[in-house]
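Section 4.2 – Deliverable D4.2 (structural model, holo form)

The reporting period included a commitment to supply a predicted holo structure for the target in complex with 2-(butylsulfanyl)adenosine. Inputs used:
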Amino acid sequence: MYSAEAQRNLYELSKKLLSSAAPSLFSIDDDPVARAYDLASVIRYHEWRYALLNDPVISDFEYDQLYKQLEALELEHPELVNPDSPTQRVSADLTADFNTVAHLTPMLSLDNSYDAEDLRDFDEAVKKLCGLPKDADVAYCAEPKFDGGTIALVYENDRLTRAATRGNGEMGDEITANMRTLRSIPLQADFSQYGIAKAELRGEAIIRKDVFEKINARREAEGETVFANPRNAATGSLRMKDPREAAARGLEAFLYQLGYAVDAEGNSVLDRFPTHDDSIQLLGTLGFKTPVLEAAPGSPLPERKVCGNIEEVIAFCSAWQDYRDNYPYEIDGMVIKVNSIALQGRCGYTSHHPRWAIAFKFRARQATTQLRDVEFQVGKTGAVTPVAKLEPVQLAGVTVSNVSLHNEEFIKSKDIRIGDQVLVERAGDVIPYIVKSLAELRTGTEQEIVYPRQCPVCHTDLVKPEDEAVWRCVNAECEAQVVQRMIFHTSKHAMDIEGMGESTIIRFYKMGWLHSIADLYRLDFDKIAQLEGFGEKSAANMKAALEVAKKNPIYRLLHSLSVHHLGQKGSKLLAAELDHVLDLRNWDLERYQEIKDVGPVLAKNVYNFFHNEKNIELLQTMEDLGVNLRQTEEDKKPASAAEGPLAGLSILFTGTLSTMAREAAEKMAAEAGASLSSGVSKNLNILVVGEKAGSKLKKAQALGTVEILTEGEFLARIQQEA
Ligand code: IVH
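Output (structure tokens):
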């Protein structure tokens, strides 16, 4: 769009114009016409850097100064105001009135595909339509399917003259005033240089996911209704009555099709651009935001790709499906287009969609299904959790039939009833959850969810601690709790006993072999070897796994006891201070205060546990059975070093590190006293960036409070004396 030289000149000109802002407007150039021209040129350039490259070269403040200068100049010389001036994006006297307008060519829909087979079928159909042999390779262009509001822009004699929504495909609403406010849409573009007198471009107006979240946060704070998703926020913004409000919504436009282009005589010139790729490149050159061939933000993948054949398309779509959650924009699939315009012509159209293009839809993340029943499950600390039993439904590649309803408050606030149709969502790695119940689909047979007041397993009265949202069974002998504690005891984060999973524990429990966690260490392996589904080998493996577990450091044992609030971190803090686990019998509550990061609630829970004779007996039995209760070397390492060059700092790694594995780097950071963060937030102190760092780096830069280190700087830092 701008050559390096043009960019340098515009930058220098900006600086000159900025330094001459005051006192006299015309200190550089007394000719207001020339000055207005200069100002408009540099402002357009900075809008391009900002809105398309995401990489401004001047500050927002400086941009505002330039803009204000032009505004002041135009106020003084109204004859200089030209409708394409950057100051005319929003004209306050113009309200969006939404006339209906006819598109220059119909805006069709897309056919859908859902898997590799569908795409191969599409490829086969394309070859047939084009009269190509079955084994020919057709080149396709693949790009994200943006999930926003579809727009069509008309340029006549290099000026934006009209913008419209898709409407019914033939006619749309005129939204020119609103679209003029988007800095990613040039008000003028050099189409004539390519022999184009009039053009219609298609694209999508979208809102970045993080901007969407900010908009919703603000709306929530102001008591307004929030948007369900970025798409609704975008389509709503297209039709704002006041363009100034539309401007405030942070819309961006991606253009992905040159739908119509004629010369001054009205003859189509579309065939001057032989491939889809050529026409997208043209739009990029003219200053439009398009899906680019370079890496997508924060990604190893190109945003758009010209693929040599359908197998390349399939691989590209599948890679994007995995990357989709990291992309700053909401997308619901990919669009695949025959790259050659000549071949597109041979494919033609149905009344509904072009035969040369297809959408590849990502696996659905939302689905509706029926809530058949609610079960109340008792956890290892007695918390009673309602779990919805759903009619099984496919969601982003997995079958979902159980989802947690968390607590009584959740059920009430969402007015969820048994028999309801519910909307279930699974985004990224997030556990599936119920978004809402569809009250409008009720038949009258739905039943309210009755929360039990007694433990569903042992029937003890449930208790709801004042500061908690959950009801609890307080009977430590409750069968459900005993089994859950055993399951937790053997789990990966606790004693990590391989081959001793949930189903095995339940089976042994039902056979009367297990009454407490101590019984795990006196199982009869001869008997186990006789069981159906076991045998000598798996019994021997289980025995070996238990032998290994017996030697575990005591922090694992402490964690495995299911003391409420005692997690791995707390367990490590305690383990570092103990010669023997049973020393805790002699600790009073004050002793816990001496450990940083151990709060009064945790202290009380551990204190109570070690002042209960039954628990002491349990641990003594375990010690007799060979389980280690003495501090090991591993226990001596403090959980978070209070000393060290990174003491007290939180750290996060992003991108690919070149000299060490991520895990190794994290371990070094922890040993230097840092705590590992899971994401970029105000609480993060240090971000270490490797190669191809993406959104995390941008976010950290935007926050401005995070110290950003290269890999080398990080290494130098941890080698410093504290
Ligand atoms: S091409 C003639 N490319 O998806 C076909 N459409 O279901 C022109 N969409 O509302 C469409 N991203 O607005 C194309 N990269 C992309 C797209 C895209 C989103 C929308 C399109 C239409 C819908 C079709």
